Amino acid sequence: MKDFATNLLMLHNAEFLDAFKLTVYHIGYVDSRQDADRWIRRAMKFHPLLLDIIVPTSTRQYQLHFPSLASSLCRLKKLFLHGLHLEHSFAKLIRSGCPVLEDLVLWSCRNEFPHIQSDTLKSLVVRGCLSKAAGVLRIKAPALSSLCLDFGLHEYTDGALLEAGHSLVRASVSLMSAVAPQRGATEILVSLVNATSLELCGFHATAVLDKELDELPIFVNLKTLSLDYMFASKCDLKRFKALGLFLQKTPMLEKLTLTNFYVRVLHIFSLLLHVTY
Known about the structure:
Elements: H1 2-10, E1 19-23, H2 30-44, E2 50-54, E3 78-82, E4 85-86, H3 89-97, E5 103-107, E6 110-111, E7 115-117, E8 123-127, E9 130-131, E10 137-140, E11 146-151, E12 160-163, E13 170-175, H4 185-191, E14 197-201, H5 206-209, E15 224-228, H6 236-248, E16 255-259, H7 268-274
Parallel strand pairs: 1-2, 2-3, 3-5, 4-6, 5-8, 6-9, 7-10, 8-11, 10-12, 11-13, 13-14, 14-15, 15-16
Helix pairs in contact: 1-2
């Protein structure tokens, strides 16, 4: 099968390749990594529209490095990477080597770059990625319309700084980091101000309470809001106050979903009496 795949790519004479999808098992073996690297590099020479590379979580992750390229991927519109090691040069590839890229998915990757910048990117997913390069992920994508950021414990512990322009309409952001309070959490909320649908998870109460009321943005387009493990605080009163202040900034809201919003039951009514909006 290895020889078949190699020969197929070597004998491929078409000018372009529409899609290249590869799932790599047994990545712990040197031969497997070398074969995968050779196949990926060969596929890139045909300027695919779609590039989808997966190293399953059941195998040894991060041992397969995404190749550094001297030339650009001038036709690439969709790039899906799972379980790869992405070096510092990956940021340059996205910024200037993928001039028509629209969809980028990074799942369980090892990111050695500090930022993602693209003028054409419309959809971005960064989920479960580790990084030693920076505690905060900087994103600049003025054409972005859909965003999913899912940072678990010890993953981008300072969150993200986002410049998304006015086109962002759907966003899901989870900041379940070990750092409290989270630096940059309020800035993320500000950058999501034009969204019509938001899913937020793991923000501390300080993201709202550390700001004056008039400093928080008004989500004039927001109609659907889902909050999960939100406004964490040792004080139930602060949790309710943060929720109340945030909802004041959503005048067009039609649907609200609260999940894992825990408070001490005996204090609920007394808290409601003391919360002022």
